[in-house]
Description:
By secondary structure, the chain is α+β, with helices and mostly antiparallel strands. The protein is 24% helix and 19% strand.
Amino acid sequence: xxxxxxxxxxxxxxxxxxxxxxxxxxxxxxxxxxxxxxxxxxxxxxxxxxxxxxxxxxxxxxxxxxxxxxxxxxxxxxxxxxxxxxxxxxxxxxx
Length: 95
């Protein structure tokens, strides 16, 4: 048999007030804009032994940084992949 009672419990939770680009400092409107979130744990023997770096970059800054790469980004259109998958599945199911 389980005996129980009701109890009021109050706890604190972290509430995000906003996300800001760590490059330009502008607020990121997450409802209307994409952004990149990086959370990197550095392992032993790296220059940042056992540290964690975490930051957010707005879409504009992301492409400014990507434009400086010596090797171009490999970009895949996700809609094309989804369409190709749907077509292959339809053929397999004889639809």
